[in-house]
Amino acid sequence: MANPRASTAVAANTIAAEFEDCMETYHSLCSAMEANTAAWSGTTSAVCEYRKTLHHWGYRTGAATRALDYALHKNSDLRDEVLELLEGFKATLQSSRSFSAFIH
Questions:
Q1: Hey, is 14 helix, strand or coil?
Q2: Angstrom distance (rounded) from CA 29 to CA 94
Q3: N or C: which end of the chain has fewer CB within 10 A?
Q4: Does some domain include residue 61?
Q5: Residue 95: inside a domain, yes or no?
Q6: Alpha-carbon distance 52 to 48, whole Å?
Q7: Its domain of life (predicted)?
Q8: How far is the C-alpha of 43 from the C-alpha of 28, rounded, in Å?
Q9: Is residue 49 part of a domain?
Q10: Cα–Cα distance measured from residue 71 to residue 77, given in angstroms and rounded to the nearest whole number
Q11: Domain total in the chain
Q12: Domain range holding 89?
């Protein structure tokens, strides 16, 4: 059995890859919001606090370490559902980041 943490390179189309993309996009959004705090009138800290929640979720569930990919390798329907949710979340973050750039 392969160690899910053994490889630092994350294969495309995995839960771990989508989670990593979400975290990077979230970080980018928070950076953009922090750079223009006046326009966000106090919402920056709340939004960035949720990033910590996502981070903790990723490590508790194994999404960040490929453990969740391994655990769901025999249940493709559930794996696909998790991927779809992460992809949708990433799209929302990207839209927010685009909006943030527009305000700045």
A1: coil
A2: 8
A3: N
A4: yes
A5: yes
A6: 7
A7: Eukaryota
A8: 15
A9: yes
A10: 13
A11: 1
A12: 15-103
What is d(CA 102, CA 85) in angstroms, rounded to the nearest whole number?
A: 26
- Residue-level pLDDT at 69: 96
Per the CB < 8 A criterion, the answer to whether 10 and 20 are in contact is yes
Three-state SS across 31-79?
Answer: HHHHHCHHHHCCCHHHHHHHHHHHHHHHHHHCCCCCHHHHHCCCCHHHH
Cβ atoms within 10 Å of 83's Cβ, excluding its own? 19
Report yes or no: 99 and 29 within 8 Å, Cβ to Cβ: no
Whether 48 and 93 have beta carbons less than 8 Å apart is answered as no
Q: Label residue 51 by pLDDT band (50, 70, 90).
A: confident
Digit-coded pLDDT (tens) for 86-102:
999 999 988 887 776 55
| Side chain identity at residue 19, one-letter code | F
Residue 8 lies in a domain: no
